Amino acid sequence: MKIRLLVYFFRQAIQSLVPNGMVHAVGLGTMVVSLLIFGSFLLLFVNLSDWVEGWGENLTMSVYLEDGLDEKMKQAIMRHIQGLEGASVKEYISKERALEHLRAALGERSDLLESLSRNPLPASIEVIIRRHNPRRTDPAAIVKGIAALPGVSDVQYSEEWVNRFRNILEVVRLTGFIIGGLLGAGVIFIVTNTIKLGLYARQDEIEILKLVGATDWFVKIPFLMEGILQGLLSGFLANAILFVGYLILAARKTFFLGVAPIHFTFIPFDYALVILAVSAILGLIGSFIALGRFFNL
Amino acid sequence: MIQLFHVYKSFDANVALKDVNLKVREGEFVFVTGPSGAGKTTLLRLIFGAEKPTSGYILISGINLNRIRRLQLDLLRRKVGFVFQDFKLLPSKTVFENVALALEVSGHKPSFVRKKTRQALKAVGLAGKEEVYPLQLSGGEQQRVAIARAVVKDPILLLADEPTGNLDPELTQEIMVLFRSIHLSGTTVVVATHARELLEDTAQRTIFLEKGQVVGEK
């Protein structure tokens, strides 16, 4: 396509945006809100993913030992754990210390423990598994291996929690997709109607253009550009507002369960570009639909 | 240039044209006349390809309008000028922009568009009014802008539907002088009018339409 024609089309698209400013502003505002909702889900998903993956990086494992285990057996188990790829023993918690922990956790109600004839809590070994290379270190296999050792009664590890969060993450992702799809349809509807209003406002001009021999595409392209511009603009604004929202969130100190500090991250640059591209494509689709219904001059 | 064979045109139950057979040769100047509702506008719209005949054939420069593709029709319209009674000018565009539009749709270079537009405006006596908006002009001047727009692309055929319908007798004569000069440059001209004063003392071929039928020719 000739560059001067492209310039002409672009000029026409801009000229159409200005006189229908109010209509475009309302359409643009609604599109920005829709994209912002989708972007917020994306931001939530990205941060949840980061947190879950962060927890998954260092799995903690509690290896519960059978009662009456001698020192030799205990040392053998610890040596076995130390020899595993990425695993290290954090600490050994004796039966007595476990009871102390429980007593401390019960606080005022710790007197309940006085009625116990013997300490029912098992001794345990706290293990950290670093997952530098998840392919080489399969936590499930390590758990299975440790659980099979003689003298080990049970193994509990944080992967179970991570997996639960991963399931929640899947739900968030699915919800995001559904809401994103619905909002996408909404955006198309908005653009279709905005462009249609523009088409009606310029009906005379279109008629005259056709009378002097303009091809359909000559008339259509500025409207398609208008849709793309509207999409791009709303995508850009949505990203900008999302970034401001992120900055506000990141400036506040937030804690998970009141203990672990939460670090917020913004959506990756690629995702921001995706929002921009998707909004432009939605704008294009919307104007396409509007033109398809309108054109029969 | 223009050939119509047994052309019928109906709008629902209303018959606008009945068995119209017509030939207009290249370079001719033809008046189509008749009372209001005789079918003059419908005839011109059929020739322009804005309507399709209910039955019959229309050939323009050998192209069958019944079988013409959309793009072909757009390209044909670039060679055909149309002047309307209500001018059909864009009030938001200047006189220059209105005329230039006819060339811009063909993708001509801006320098060519500027040169031809100025020439066309000069030819219709509107040099110096390029930056004026149509509504700031008189009816006669607006019609001249419409004529400039129709002739700026050097059409092989110029169709005019009641071009003087909104003008006083003096301006009517001015517009007719313009049409004659366009005709003299080699363009085939078809003017639909019900104004009898235009047809008096004219040697031009005149086709009489009544109730959608050709009832005579002079």
Per the CATH scheme, the topology name of chain B is Rossmann fold
How does the major sheet of chain A shape up?
Answer: 4 strands, antiparallel
Structural class of chain A: alpha+beta
Strand order of the largest sheet of chain A: 2-3-1-4
Assembly state (oligomeric): heterodimer
- Class computed from helices, strands and strand pairing of chain B: alpha/beta
Low-confidence stretches of chain B: none
Q: Give average pLDDT of chain B, whole number.
A: 89
User: Hey, roughly how much beta strand do the residues of chain A contain?
Assistant: 5-15%
The termini of chain A sit apart by 24 Å
Give the topology, please.
The complex is a heterodimer of chains A (297) and B (218).
Chain A: H1 3-17, H2 21-57, E1 58-65, H3 71-82, E2 87-93, H4 95-106, E3 124-130, H5 139-147, E4 152-157, H6 159-201, H7 203-211, H8 216-251, E5 254-256, E6 260-262, H9 269-294
Antiparallel strand pairs in A: 1-3, 1-4, 2-3, 5-6
Helix pairs in contact in A: 1-8, 2-6, 2-8, 6-8, 6-9, 8-9
Chain B: E1 2-11, E2 14-24, E3 29-33, H1 40-48, E4 55-60, E5 63-64, H2 70-77, E6 80-83, H3 95-104, H4 110-123, H5 139-151, E7 157-161, H6 169-184, E8 188-193, H7 196-199, E9 205-210, E10 213-217
Parallel strand pairs in B: 3-8, 3-9, 6-7, 7-8
Antiparallel strand pairs in B: 1-2, 1-4, 4-5, 9-10
